[in-house]
Amino acid sequence: MLARLLVPVRGDGLGETVKAHAAALAHRHKAHVVVAHCRAKPDDMIPYSTLLPTFARETIMSQAAELADQEEDTLRQSLHVIARNLDLEETESPDGTRATVAFIEEFGPMAQVIKHHGRLADLIVAAKPDSNRNLGTNSLKSALFQTGRPVLMCPTAGQVDPNFGAHIAVGWNGSLEAARTVALTLDLAAAAERVSILAAGSGEPHGATTEELVEYYRLRGIKADIHRFEARKPGLALLEKSLEVGAGLLVMGAYGHSHEREILFGGNTQTVIDKAEIPVVMAH
User: Which of these, 143, 151, 231, 139, lies nearest to 185 by C-alpha position?
Assistant: First the structure.
């Protein structure tokens, strides 16, 4: 059961569509959304390796604390408005009968907050990184590599489809990462009205076949159809095929190679992260 969604936020402007996507899934699954505000510690505002007079240090820390208070107040007010607009009931004691939301505040970098709270979340909902402003990369990396949980990467612009989650596409190549992602997202597949398996080429040597995945789903009451394709660039082809079959959400395994190698030399996961215009659920 998809019961707890984690939405880490900070004042960087990337959180609005993330909250909307989380709310859409919360309504579909009667889940609880935890919005975690990642608040910087005043000490983190002090320049490293710089000796400052006591009064200067105290002034910087006081101003940092005041700024963080203002940011938190703004986010809390925004949460109340968003909760009303998205029909989420605010509560700290969810019972699984309706979509609910709660706001918590955590000190420290977002990557650490995600690591802490993400390990007991059924899904972590994060924004697609903004490479132009160097925002979101560490958060997505922490969610994928430090929690062991599936991560929903959301576009930062556009409206959320009212039927979000109704039709999902599953990228399949028989790999360990793909198999693990399938297992971690069974609730998403079970709640969907249609599941389309996108299979490229012959898959990984000695990996599970696409037909075996169909049977795996069938035993769990999930009907899935197969769409095969050939492509020299599977990452781009997965995105194109997802749109072609009409899916509003792509599910795929992430980083069969190391994150650093894909950054340097390119890779299917990095291509999807860079080019995706639809929500993508990934797990490593």
Answer: 151
